[in-house]
Design a protein that fits this description.
about 475 residues; mainly alpha; 16 helices; coiled coil
Length: about 475
């Protein structure tokens, strides 16, 4: 009877763990939907209202002339499919405004080819070199340049619902997003609005801004490492910490602004380009992220949050990738792909035999191709938004100092949080496997100790046998 109850209890525990995991996945998906709604609204507000069709009843799907006159226009604004997606997601966004239920859980950028990149050593020379380099660049202080940057409301000085995780180096610092609202900081930046100059910034200018932030950030991180052992300089330490936070928020605001303006291609080039040499790489080195996952000092709760959220984003991305692959494998309509105008289509030298040369057949073919193109465009936009939410989720699981120090590991390439998530998931799996092996070894030792006779009992049995003889 006892064995039966034990078996049932174990089964209930397994089912509870599955329910908790499913609940956490739904909670993350809800946060993703809310962030995507906020992003789509921000994108819509940045467009010229005269270029956006707000009323679907006014849209005639058979009218392809506008698209043919300006085929590149659709790439710079929201498509009708995007607006339809926004309308579908609005109910979920309104529900997200209510307090989120708390979690039920109980608890390849190339680097040097030789060794993984390590953070710079905490020396005064490094700090002086960083300061001199910033002055020599002729650029104003990144903290001063961020004067128009709105501070995150999730900051430790104003956040009342943060998780309260301490940074690994001893300075108290909250994660950018609390566990019950994992994409809060992203929604806040989207609601604050994009930086106007992000709509026209070039890759070299973006690299120069990032390099300036890294130089000043290195200086203050070095000062923090030196000041943490000196209790007589709390004011200087708090000042350096505030500058590091402001630099990080400035970088995240630039990234969010580029996302709002639909410049995902620039972000992709930015993350693959060496900000010192301007050389763009084709492959991404995972070694800096492997070192960062082990040396950033992520707590058990932080690792757990990343390990729970990363598979959710992989699942969301895989659904989009599968549909993209299916659409790309479908051949374009033969009639619609021959020409962009009726006159061109009608006077082509090589028309397929038996094709009905009528305006209606050409128009239907063009409509099918236009719908296919719009669907591809919407899926690509959705893929970019999911990727942005994934990066924001990973950043939200970290403290300001941890996120800033990650940039030291990946420098001179900007950090891509998706890669850090991959490494943290692998690290959590390895730690879980090691813990399971240790538990199995402990159980085996207990069983062996119970099966072996006690030394006193064995000696008494031997003495009794000798007395009988």
């Amino acid at each position: 009877m006892e064995e039966l109850l034990t078996s049932q209890l174990q089964q209930l525990q397994v089912e509870l763990a599955r329910a908790q995991q499913a609940h956490q996945a739904l909670h993350i998906k809800q946060a993703v939907v809310s962030a995507m709604c906020t992003a789509l609204q921000a994108m819509q507000h940045e467009l010229d209202p005269s270029e956006v069709v707000a009323d679907e009843e006014m849209y005639d799907p058979m009218d392809c002339s506008a698209a043919f006159r300006n085929p590149a226009a659709s790439s710079s604004q929201l498509t009708h499919a995007d607006l339809a997606l926004l309308q579908q997601l609005r109910p979920s966004m309104q529900q997200q405004q209510q307090p989120c239920c708390s979690s039920l859980s109980s608890n390849q950028y190339p680097c040097s080819p030789s060794t993984p990149r390590q953070p710079p050593t905490n020396t005064a020379a490094a700090a002086a070199a960083a300061s001199n380099a910033s002055v020599a660049a002729g650029k104003p202080s990144a903290a001063a340049a961020a004067g128009d940057l709105p501070a995150l409301r999730g900051d430790s000085s104003s956040s009342g619902g943060s998780s309260g995780i301490d940074a690994a180096d001893g300075w108290p610092d909250d994660t950018l997003s609390p566990p019950d609202d994992p994409l809060r900081f992203l929604r806040q930046l989207l609601q604050d609005g994009p930086l106007p100059w992000a709509a026209s910034i070039t890759l070299p200018e973006l690299q120069q801004q990032y390099l300036s932030s890294c130089r000043e950030g290195l200086l203050h991180l070095t000062l923090l490492d030196n000041q943490q052992h000196n209790e007589q300089q709390p004011a200087q330490a708090q000042q350096s910490l505030a500058v590091v936070k402001q630099l990080l928020q400035q970088h995240l605001h630039r990234w969010t602004s580029l996302l709002v303006y639909g410049r995902s291609d620039l972000l992709y080039q930015f993350h693959l380009t060496n900000c010192l040499t301007g050389v763009q790489m084709e492959q991404q080195d995972m070694r800096p992220y492997q070192a960062a996952a082990r040396q950033l000092g992520l707590t058990r709760l932080q690792k757990q949050r990343i390990a729970e959220g990363f598979p959710v984003f992989q699942q969301l991305q895989q659904v989009v990738l599968d549909e993209l692959q299916q659409l790309q494998q479908q051949p374009a309509d033969e009639a619609g792909g021959l020409a962009h105008s009726w006159d061109e289509w009608l006077h082509q030298p090589q028309l397929p035999m038996g094709m009905v040369q009528s305006h209606s057949s050409w128009q239907l073919a063009q409509q099918r191709n236009r719908q296919r193109t719009q669907r591809l465009h919407m899926l690509l936009r959705k893929q970019h938004l999911i990727g942005a939410c994934c990066n924001a989720y990973m950043v939200g699981c970290m403290t300001h100092l941890q996120a800033a120090k990650l940039g030291q590991f990946t420098f001179p390439f900007p950090a891509f949080m998706f890669h850090l998530g991959q490494e943290v998931v692998q690290l959590v799996q390895q730690e879980a496997q090691q813990q399971q092996q240790q538990q199995q070894q402990q159980l085996l030792d207990i069983d062996m100790a119970a099966a072996a006779p006690a030394p006193a009992a064995a000696a008494a049995a031997a003495a009794a046998a000798a007395a009988q003889l």
